[in-house]
Amino acid sequence: MLLYILRRVLYAVPIALAVSLLCFLLVHIAPGDPVNAIVPADAPQAVVEQIRAEYGLDKPLPVQFGLWLLKVVQGDLGRSLATGRAVTEDLAIAVRNTLRLSLVAALIGFTFGTLLGAVAGLFRGTWVDRLAVGLAAAGVSVPHYWLGMVLVILFSVLIPALPAMGAGPGGSGDWVWDIAHMRHLVLPAITLSVIPMGIVTRTLRGIVAEIMNQDFVNTLRGKGLRRGGILLHVAKNAAPGTLAVMGLQLGYLMGGSILVETVFSWPGTGFLLNSAIFQRDIPVLQGTILVLALFFVTLNLLVDLLQTALDPRIKRA
Amino acid sequence: MTASDDTPPRLSRRGLLRGASASAAATLALPAWMGPAALGWDPAFAQVAGGVLRVGMTASAVPLSNGCPDQGGEGQRFMGITLYDQLVMWDLSRSDAPAVLKPGLATAWKTEEGNPKRWSFTLRPGVKFHDGHVLTAEDVIFSFDRGFKRDAAWFDPRAGAQIAPRFPTLVAWGSEGPGQFWLETSIPDSTIPYALTWLGIVHKGAWEAAGSNWDNYLLKAVGTGPWKLTSFSLRERAELARFDEYWDAPRVPKCARLTLLPLPEANTRVAALRSGQVDFIEAPPPDAIDSLKAAKFTIVTNAYPHNWTWHLSMVEGSPWRDVRVRKAANLALNRAELKELLGGLMLEGNGLVPPGNPWAGKPSFRLSYDLAAARKLMTEAGFSAANPVRTKIAISSSGSGQMQPLPMNEYIQQALKEAYIEISFEVFDWNTLITVWQGGAKGPNARGCTGINFSYAAFDPYSAFIRLLKSDLHAPKGVNWGWFSDPAFDALFAEVYATFDPAQQNALLARVHERIVDEALFLFAAHDMNPRALSPKVQGFVQAQSWFQDLTPVRMG
Amino acid sequence: MSTTTSLGASPAAAPRRPAASPGYWQGVWRRLRHDRVTLACAAVLLLMLFAILAAPLIAPADPYQTSMIRRLKPVGFGNHLLGTDELGRDMLTRLLYGGRLSWFLGITPVVIAFGIGGTLGIIAGFAGGWVNMLIMRVTDVFYAFPSVLLAVAISGALGAGVFNAILSLTLVFIPQIIRVAESTTTSVRALDYVEAARGSGAGALTIVRVHVLPNVLGPIFVYATSLISVSMIIASGLSFLGLGTKPPEAEWGLMLNTLRSAIYSQPVIAMLPGLCIFVTSMAFNLVSDGLRAAMDVRN
After folding, report:
1. Is the model's pLDDT at B260 over the cut of 80?
2. Do B287 and C248 touch (CB under 8 A)?
3. CATH (residue range C23-54+89-294)
């Protein structure tokens, strides 16, 4: 077991390295010149060349990658071309904002997903099941950025009850968990929660139904175990698989919130990524993608380990 | 909190105390939390005496607070002329006439007798910076050093990149006594006063207080402007407060605070305005105007020199080298319909300046819709429905000042098709289009495009005409995108540079402009009307006929 | 248990038993015939497919013909059954033509990824050893990116355009399909009779053709169908961000984007493209579910 954990952790290292290379390459295959992000449209060429040299953009690619990686390892993701500020500074704020949003969205999505999935799996074939399946299918099929727009029109414009954008009355800098701030979370979090809701519902329904079909449940029933007892049993057996899916979904929420953050001007990683793409701010682009991917790698690892710990039946080679 | 506090407002963990008090206030206001957002969402700010003006900008980030802002003209509008003053400034107090220059931190300026390349300036006495420092000639020299003197310890490459292109002729500067400042240009350059409106005056002590670091300085910016910086969070917001000791007493802001929010997405701006999160938005989308008016919001517009054109290539192989094709395109475009598309929020293209502008002149070629004449010209040029001109235009998907690029260009595409001109588009994102613009029509990024839809403001003779058409200002030196070259124009431009009398210069520029229109050097489509939507609470705003606006007279009702 | 998509369903479970017998497919069809939801969704999709393919014949207007005086007219205005868009173009026509590109963007990346990913996955699963190692480790790297992030990153780097959008989506789906193909193939390879065939000296190609393909293609196919809706949603999301289709092409995501500001004056019109994406993607998802259920021999 310990050996397995160690191996699994060690294996994450080359993955992380390869991910860094991919991040680095991604932004260099692009057309367009990053220098234009920092100089005005009619800047003379001499100024452009000087800025290029200052930011190291005139060196060959492998050298740039080497230098970049060396710094990354030391926790230095470079400076934004657009602002001159350390990327890590911007990222720290953005990651925190995205985490806030994703965690709340996950909480909503997982709660409803668990409820719907469990009920559907326990009462398979009934109208409750069909309703849950329908909701889940809608959740994974709806273009969520569209849902976000519709929610804004309904609850910010027609009935001006909730804020349409931003992460708090004074920006995200002075975030506290009070109502004035949490109201800003409502619409984006609901919008973001529909996908994990749908996926958790589907997964849990499948797992529960499978467990219910298995012999041991019938055996328990035969033994005259009461409903509560059976439920507990099902819950215990469904937990590892469900938790694994939830863990991955949290990762997808972090990485996939770009559309929702754009619709709601939520100052998180997706928002940062979007502006970096359109400003061609290479260090910010690289840093954001890298941090999100590494976060995902770590999450994958944790989920894997957690699942192994929870589910003694899984035997790893 | 003021910008001169010893502890700078940290971006990551700003204003803990204020946050706590805001939350306390919000908690008291609990019952309102499901009520209209305008009442309930922001109680902490609503209590500020004099009110808070919250602005939704089109910029994708808060413009830099260093006195030479990025984000183009919008940056200067909200961060340049709010926090800072310049030696020469725009008079933005009138909406019924084009904005003109007025004395700023310089009370007077002139060129030296017998040497038109040397300018001298008398500085305004007793002007205070936000940190209490009093303006001296040394501060003006410092401000020029930080933008142009590459070997100075306080040279700021970022500010330099923004400001250098505004001063193509600057060679030297200095002081010859207290309250006096001089500068020299390489050629006689009458456009210097316009260029000076871009350079915010900073002082060395403030830079040193920021650890002699221009990046830190962004958080603790200190100017002489009517507003002072209280907090700066690049991707979210900037907060400014009234500077009570501002030297120009009538321009001390009526509002106590000014909040600037970058909201690049037009619908987000509308939603933010309607849900009461901001009071003032730039460029509401035309299709939202009616519903905004119905909901009692005010829409303000005005004429100002901002051009939305196709800049045409004169490079070998471009169909636009034939003046008949250029004229035909201009005649085939029904500008009234384009205006309809924008819900009336544009002026029909009148050339490179809007009607009524002192430089407009009286061109003989009329920019009206006449499809028959367009077809006739095309037939003369040897084209027909069966044998149309086929060419490609570079456009952007969005961008500040680009108005509604996609539907507008799609509309023009359909209109020109009627006159045997078949257009295809190369769509770039705004920032890549800037590359294409800088690279010129011969550049590798142009991908064979023979025109570019690039909008710009025409602030002064240089930015309005000279940089676009002077034969030696093609890439990489300037933005004569189409490699246009005509000795007659070059001669006119030389005359403009050397003419210092404003009336004479205006007459000369009107002649330049007449010629530009008569030769149909661009596809003149529209002038932006700079629409803004204001909440009914915003009072006293005067929309100047300028790309810039003064927010100091605004009160919150 | 592993979940391999961000938006869609979890992958089809590998078959517990061989599915190559002719009776199996009859059983699948029998089960499908009684699944009314799946049949209804399939009918919706077929109808839509027919409509968009026949767009040049049945569309009431020219998809590119603009008219400023007729812009943003409501549903049922004149002869515009679904109103007009921001340039006065007939909405029904635009939606029909837009469907072509949206379907194309939804299906093409999945088809290409099915071909490439399926092949690589089967090779990895069947060959095992270092081949498996090589293919799967590279897959792991791409797998370390959440799909939306990867699609946005690639499209953001390459720039807008249909080709780039397809490229980025294909790259997103290939690793996902490789994983399913590999695990399915591995489980089939371990089956007794496949082992027996190997033992009897049958050639690798023969074994793959006779024993492996019939058993693994089904599950990979079902999994791929669940990706179509994901592909459609991400593709229109890219257009929505300005990283996908370029105007004047009609595409649902782009239409959703360009009609955004009309939501204040013509909310119904502005919502139509989103609704089209929603309905199509839901139908694909439900059909995929139905197929999976029908092909799962345990039912």
Report:
1. yes
2. no
3. 1.10.3720.10
SS (H, E, C) B88-108: EEEECCCCCCECEEEECCEEE
* Contacting subunits of B (3+ beta carbon pairs below 8 A): A, C
Nearest to A259 among C3, C156, C240 (CB): C240
Partners of B100 in beta bridges: B91
Q: What pLDDT was estimated at residue B520?
A: 95
Give the C-alpha separation, B525 to B452, whole Å: 13
Asked whether B438 and A41 are in contact (CB, 8 A), the reply is yes
Task: Give pLDDT tens digits for B41-97.
Answer: 444 444 456 789 999 988 878 888 999 987 777 788 999 999 999 999 999 998 888
Is residue A188 within 8 angstroms of chain B, CB to CB? no
Using CB atoms, pick whichever of C144, C267, C281 lies closest to residue A19.
C144
Burial (CB count within 10 angstroms: exposed 0-12, middle 13-18, buried 19+), residue A87: buried
CA distance A224 to A247: 35
The shortest C-alpha distance from A223 to chain B (Å) reads 53
Q: Is B424 on the interface with C (CB under 8 A)?
A: no
**Do residues B18 and A174 touch, judged by C-beta distance below 8 A?**
yes
Q: Say whether pLDDT at B459 is over 80.
A: no
Residue B523 has pLDDT above 50, yes or no: yes
Task: Check: CB of residue B37 under 8 Å from CB of residue B271.
Answer: no
Q: Looking at per-residue confidence, does B283 or A106 come out higher? A: A106
Chain CA centroid to CA C228, Å: 1
Q: What is the pLDDT of residue B17?
A: 35
CA distance A229 to A207: 18
Predicted confidence (pLDDT) per residue in C47-64, tens digit: 999 999 988 888 888 887
Question: DSSP per residue over A234-266, as a string?
Answer: HHHHHHHHHHHHHHHHHHHHHHHTHHHHHHHT-
Span C16-43, pLDDT tens digits: 445 556 677 788 888 888 888 889 999 9
Residues in chain A within 8 Å Cβ distance of C141 = 15, 18-19, 22
CA distances for A59 relative to A23, A82, B384, C24, C258, angstroms: 18, 20, 51, 61, 40
> CA-to-CA distance for B473 and B466, rounded, in angstroms?
8
Are the Cβ atoms of C237 and A293 closer than 8 angstroms?
no
pTM metric for this prediction: 0.81
Mean pLDDT in residue range A31-41: 59
Give dist(CA B76, CA B549) in Å, integer.
Answer: 10
- Subunit contact C2:A244, Cβ cutoff 8 A: yes
**Which residue is it, tokens 């197929």?**
C291
* Cα four-point dihedral sign C281, C283, C288, C289: positive
Residue B323 has pLDDT above 70, yes or no: yes
User: What is the nearest CA distance from C159 to chain B, expressed in angstroms?
Assistant: 8
Q: Do C247 and B432 touch (CB under 8 A)?
A: no
For residue B391, the SS3 value is: strand
- pLDDT at residue C278 is higher than 90: yes
CB contact under 8 Å between B19 and A173, yes or no, is yes
Q: Do A165 and B263 touch (CB under 8 A)?
A: yes
Interface size A-C, in CB pairs within 8 Å, comes to: 148
By percentage, how much of chain B surpasses pLDDT 90? 54
CA of A268 vs chain B CAs: smallest distance (Å):
10
Which residue, among A50, A265, A284, would best test binding to B if mutated, counting the most B CBs under 10 Å from its CB? A265
Question: Kind and range of the H or E element at B82?
Answer: helix B81-83
Q: What ipTM is given for this predicted complex?
A: 0.84
| Contact predicate B520/B330, CB 8 Å | yes
Is residue B127's pLDDT more than 80?
yes
> Could C261 and B266 be called an inter-chain contact, meaning their C-beta atoms sit closer than 8 Å?
yes
